[in-house]
Write a structure and sequence with these properties.
With 97 residues, the chain is α+β, with helices and mostly antiparallel strands. Helices cover 55% and strands 18% of the residues. The chain has four helices and three strands. The relative contact order is 0.14. It holds the Pfam family DciA.
């Protein structure tokens, strides 16, 4: 294990600070919200109005009841796609509203 005086990669130092000061959840939430349009693609992202994270749940506001109903059936797949894109378990569930 390197001593504290050894040079460390900047990414490792920043990751340590994020974890140490408790910002990991906020950063993960911001990454998930920003990832939604990429993961959803232009067709699905085009029928959504808002996306936000709260307590591990990704909330997606959908413009029409028909789209919301259709997307609701695929919640587990959306959660898996989001976490695959983010590289770790960030989204516990996806809720379409």
């Amino acid at each position: 294990m390197p001593s504290s005086n050894d040079p460390q990669p900047l990414g490792a130092v920043l990751a340590d600070l994020v974890d140490r000061y408790g910002y990991r959840e906020r950063f993960d939430a911001a990454r998930a919200v920003e990832a939604w349009p990429v993961v959803a693609g232009p067709s699905i992202a085009g029928v959504t109005e808002q996306v936000w994270m709260r307590h591990g749940a990704l909330h997606v506001k959908v413009r029409s009841a028909a789209w919301r109903h259709q997307l609701q059936f695929q919640r587990a797949a959306w959660r898996e796609r989001m976490n695959d894109h983010l590289g770790r378990e960030v989204v516990d569930e996806v809720q379409f509203r």
